[in-house]
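Fold it.
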Amino acid sequence: QVQLVESGGGLVQAGGSLRLSCAASGRTFSKNAIGWFRQTPGKEREFVAAIGWSRGSIYYADSVKGRFTISRDNAENTVYLQMNSLKPEDTAVYYCAANLGIGVGVRGYEYHYWGQGTQVTVSS
């Protein structure tokens, strides 16, 4: 059974940092793109960042560019999202997802496996 499990969320003050992890089990995703998305109640799911298997293909939403860094450890089948200079508007449930297709997508429908999400709350 394929599973993606996020961890590392929590409560942090504005300006602080968190590191999210997305651990995959059931199959290897070393050749697949992994993306991070976030969602707040009443809003649509929003793309945050994505990384291709080659690490050379990395994309960020404009809202997080320069503050968030996505990386992957294929040996550990894990993808990370380092979040620095956090703002209250970064508060959301963060989800990681695996894209079994070709390329690195920025749209949710391009992803086939999803984790259960981890809550990130940034206080002002």
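Residues 99 and 111 are 4 Å apart (CA to CA).
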